[in-house]
Amino acid sequence: MLFNSISFLSHFLVFYLIYYFATERIRKYLLLSFGVYFYSQWNLNATFLLFISVVFNYSLGRYLTLLTGKTKKRTFVLGITANLVYLGVFKYFVFVWELFGDLKVGFGFPGLEWKPEILLPIGISFYTFHNISYLIDVYDEKILPCKNFFTFAIYDLFFPLLLLGPIERPGNLIPQIESKQIILKENIWNGISLFLWGVFIKSTIADPFSRYVEIHAKGFETLEPGILWIVAPVIAFQIYADFFGYSLCAMGLAEMMGFRLMNNFKRPFFSSNPAEFWSKWHISLSTWLRDYVYIKLGGNRHGFFRENINLMVVWFLAGIWHGAGYGFVIWGVYLGLCLVLYRCQKHFGLVKQGNRLQSILGTIFTFYSFSLGLLLFRINSPSETKLILENLSFFPKLSSIPMMIVITLIPLFVFDFWQEWKSTERPTFFISTKPYSFLFLFAFLFFWFSLFSPFGKQDFFYFQF
């Protein structure tokens, strides 16, 4: 069930009416039941695998508190390893197998005839990171393990963020699950407005843009020279509208139920450098990697050289987290190099604070370096990198810029500029107590949706991760 589908809306409406009037205890059972039902609509076998992960990590979290010393550390390492193996088998085994086959061919041996077919559970990267952060926080004694199995199961099966995050921290979400949810009128208004805006930008920007991308980036060898300078920004806005739209939907649904999720995007395309960009894009992942990988590796505590090595490790992992393929590995290394290059410029005094021209040029460069990097997602073999570089060696024709793309982006541009002007920490329409403003917003979204939304629904882009 996609958030932007009649099926989900009809199911959620029935669920919410019961949830709103139910007692606190009944609400907990409703959350868990709807989470299981929601996830099972994608694949029943994947739901069984998720349940195994829930039971394992809940039990291990409880068991860790009974141990001390080396036994506790060994058990903890075993638990983290088990989660990584679980993720690796279902997400990376096929890629490793194909890589082994490519290496055999490269050394003159016959390729592999058999290709394994392994189910890739949707959202596995997100809920596995959920569980790893839970075990780390329990081991570091930042939180107490869940005593109630249902509380932990809801934490793993909380349906607004179950498929695509954000990767919510246990220290934020679990206390909310354990406490009573108070739903105020402004929670409902804010939740609905966020959900509507999320569906809107997904359906009227992300979906049409994905069709444009599929047409214009199907095979790199047949592309018009220089067209990738135009296609790359379209991909960037497609992914932004798609993932930001899902995050808004998740935040809106959660707020309607009395929960507050972390904000996953904070106008990243206004960033003037790569470090600022990754503090505003997919915030839950970048902060997760910072806290659970970068800092654990030593962070910036062992000198400038070691700090940059740690950054490269982090972004290599970020690349393979996004997917099993050559393009994702190259993309991760590329992002790491962008950050290291910026930090070197800053370290040697080449970046001037408060320089307006440098900030504007930095914003353009940061946006394009990110956009061009997204082309790597579409690489199926290392040889295609050369085709991308050859295409980018030409300048595009101005006539190649699709005006419909520019027009379609207007609402998103207006919203982000407005939020930047207001310096909001979280996306908001300031209409929680203004129903007439809400009705105006609803009418505008309906009108624009009628003009520009394509018929038919597409999966969210990050489902593949």
UniProtKB/TrEMBL annotation:
One of its GO terms (cellular component) is plasma membrane. The keyword Isomerase does not apply. The chain crosses the membrane at residues 6-22, 29-56, 76-97, 118-136, 148-167, 226-254, 304-322, 357-379, 399-418, 438-456. PANTHER family: ACYLTRANSFERASE, PROTEIN-CYSTEINE N-PALMITOYLTRANSFERASE RASP. It is found in: Cell membrane. This is MBOAT family protein. InterPro entries: Ac/AlaTfrase_AlgI/DltB (IPR024194), AlgI (IPR028362), MB_O-acyltransferase (IPR051085), MBOAT_fam (IPR004299). The keyword Transcription regulation does not apply. Its main location: membrane. Pfam families: MBOAT (PF03062). One of its GO terms (molecular function) is acyltransferase activity. Keywords: Acyltransferase, Cell membrane, Membrane, Transferase, Transmembrane, Transmembrane helix. It comes from the Bacteria. Belongs to the membrane-bound acyltransferase family. It is a multi-pass membrane protein. GO terms for biological process: alginic acid biosynthetic process.
